[in-house]
Amino acid sequence: MTSLDSVLDKDGVRLTVDDAVATVTLTNPAKRNAQSPALWRALTEAGRALPGNVRVVVLSGEGKSFSAGLDRQAFTPEGFDGEPSFLDMARGPEAELDATIAEYQEAFTWWRRNDIVSIAAVQGHAIGAGFQLALACDLRIVAEDVQFAMRETSLGLVPDLTGTHPLVNLVGYARALEICATGRFVHAAEAERTGLANLVVPADELDAAARDLAGALLAAPRDAVVETKALLSGAVSRGYEEQRVAERAAQGRRLRDLAGITD
Known about the structure:
Number of strands: 10
Number of helices: 10
Structural class: alpha/beta
Helix content: 40-55%
Shape: globular
Oligomer: single chain
Distance between the termini: 32 Å
């Protein structure tokens, strides 16, 4: 594909590709990139539309905020045009509600595929669904003005867009509970200290820092990065001995590949 080839541009999501690096951009700064079911479907479509040569995906949001979370119109009786309101969904069969939430979650799951490394470049507000979208990525670079918050509990809800698992893994159960139950803001210094952020930079350096990290990730052979990501992501659920076995198996595959040995 040519440089910055536009693959998708709809419902507040734009996907562009520059060789091995794809960029997914939230494009509704007037509403602080508030999220909706249409946007989630577009994010899912972006994941499915990634060309096979893409190795790194950078996620960013236009304007002063990365994403201020779910568009509150979802909770009005009229909902969004052409969409059932969340209130109507709640009155329907439980199985249908579960299936609908599962569909929404698909927008947040593909970022951790083993064949790509995803980077969220986060500035300003990343609240609720915005926080969870940043957490969906493998890595996070944040601007000094970043404000993470999980506000679902204060609305009588729970975080349900896949954010609870990475949040607990990153900051631990006690801090994750406190962040979610209070809905307080987590600023840049705390985000970096607790592992939510890999790097904090001035806001005007955010895009450049994401590009630099993407370039660094491309330096190693793709198969080695894929195997390493799978090895590390699986370590959370494996015991020590199981991880040793996984390391040996992965290294065996790499050595055979380097030696040109096929099974």
